[in-house]
Specification:
It is built from 16 helices and 14 strands. The protein has two domains: about 5-200, P-loop containing nucleotide triphosphate hydrolases (Rossmann fold), CATH 3.40.50; about 210-385, Rossmann fold. The longest helix has 19 residues, at about 365-385. The protein is α/β, with parallel strands linked by helices. The chain is elongated and about 70 Å long. Helix 2 (about 25-35) packs parallel to helix 3, helix 6 runs parallel beside helix 8 (about 160-165) and helix 10 packs parallel to helix 16 (about 365-385). The strands form two sheets. The chain has a seven-stranded parallel beta sheet, with helices on both faces. A seven-stranded parallel beta sheet has the order 10-11-9-12-13-8-14, with helices on both faces. It is about 45% helix and about 15% strand.
């Protein structure tokens, strides 16, 4: 199945092609036709399964682009709001559909201005409730999406969500996405959805068998040294290093640059333009090493990534699957390497069980081994030239 089978608007299809998507993921296959038919929907799908496109493409395809806010997406965290907004921006830019991101901690004025120009608003519950209750904004969206609903429930946003829906029109198409379906979510679904269709994507999207997975046990203070030594030893053509936090990205970029690597960072605070320039340089080979946070790497589609390094182990198995899936694409082989401290070994075992894959434990190569490996590669190269 291809995206062309879905009967999407031409400008949306062109944006999908430009984003490098060819085949829809399971959740997209099931959800897009139902959304286009106008049904309310409840979808059980994990993070990293392509949910944003599953709701974004069909609702943007049906939008008139009449200058009003036609779509509202409610998400639990600021990071997710930025990530979803980025992705929707990519899908909608050729159709002239603008997105506005609304979350706490930034000035109201700027956000209200953006909302006035937007077709889609991506918002966190707290700030959205504030704006609606104070009368600063009025929204009349035809499409409303609740993304990662179980996460919002866990974070205690249920009352805000119910309150927000009292400000929204009765005539609307509502879509709900949730990784799990606890009782609270089912109850909420009954209240806000109208005769919904159900889509359920199970966890069969486990890790790719073409990716060899290793982990190295290191003391906390040895992480930087171990990483540099492994990059030297593995000598990747193109690699992505995942960190948990933005400040870690910046620090590692500085550290690796000082070691002479061609490296660049990517995180949520970067301007869209800067992001695009950085990603293009990585795709075209101007940069060999990309240091990124999970949020920044969502939707990052780069072929020929030979290695993925987890500087820190991710918080959950879904993130792990998503991170290492950046390598071993298009039928090629790849390597995933995770650095763990001794007290993180339990987490590694849990990830192994969750994703049904075997992670091979290895020892950090000595400086001598790195040097010998380099010499062997050099000899092999000279032999090829002759």
């Amino acid at each position: 199945m291809k995206f062309t089978d879905f009967n999407l608007k031409d400008t949306i299809l062109a944006a999908v092609t430009e984003a490098g998507f060819t085949e829809p993921s399971p959740v997209q296959k099931d959800a897009i036709p139902l959304v286009l038919e106008g049904h309310d929907m409840i979808a059980q799908a994990q993070t990293g399964t392509g949910k944003t496109a599953a709701f974004g493409l069909p609702i943007m395809s049906m939008m008139k682009g009449d200058g009003s806010v036609e779509g509202l997406v409610i998400v639990p965290t600021r990071e997710l709001a930025m990530q979803v907004s980025d992705e929707l921006f990519r899908f909608g830019k050729l159709s002239g559909l603008k997105t506005a991101t609304v979350y706490g901690g930034t000035a109201y004025g700027k956000q209200i201005e953006r909302i006035k120009q937007a077709s889609i608003v991506v918002a966190t519950p707290g700030r959205l409730q504030d704006l609606l209750m104070s009368g600063k904004i009025k929204l009349n969206p035809h499409f409303v999406v609740l993304d990662e609903a179980d996460e919002m429930l866990d974070m205690g946003f249920l009352d805000e969500i119910k309150n927000i829906f009292t400000f929204l029109p009765k005539e609307r198409q509502t879509l709900m996405f949730s990784a799990t379906m606890p009782k609270g979510i089912r109850k909420l679904a009954e209240q806000i959805l109208n005769d919904p269709k159900t889509v359920s994507i199970t966890k069969s999207e486990s890790t790719n068998s073409k990716i060899t997975q290793y982990y190295y046990v290191v003391q906390e203070r040895e992480r930087d040294d171990a990483l540099v030594r492994l990059i030297d030893y593995k000598n990747p053509d193109k690699c992505i290093i995942f960190c948990r936090m933005k400040k870690e990205v910046d620090r590692l970029v500085a550290h690796l640059t000082a070691q002479g690597f061609k490296v660049s960072g990517l995180h949520g605070d970067m301007e869209q333009k800067q992001r695009e320039v950085t990603i293009r340089a990585f795709k075209q080979g101007g940069i060999d090493i990309f240091v990124a946070t999970d949020v920044a790497a969502r939707g990052l589609d780069v072929n020929d990534v030979t290695h993925v390094f987890n500087y820190h182990i991710p918080f959950d198995s879904e993130s792990y699957v998503h991170r290492i899936g950046r390598t071993g694409r298009g039928g090629k082989t790849g390597e995933a390497i995770t650095l763990v401290s001794p007290n993180e070994l339990r987490t590694i075992k849990r990830i192994e069980k969750d994703v049904g894959a075997k992670l091979i434990t290895q020892v950090i190569p000595t400086r001598m081994e790195v040097q010998n490996n380099r010499n062997d590669e050099l000899i092999a190269k000279i032999a090829q030239i002759q």
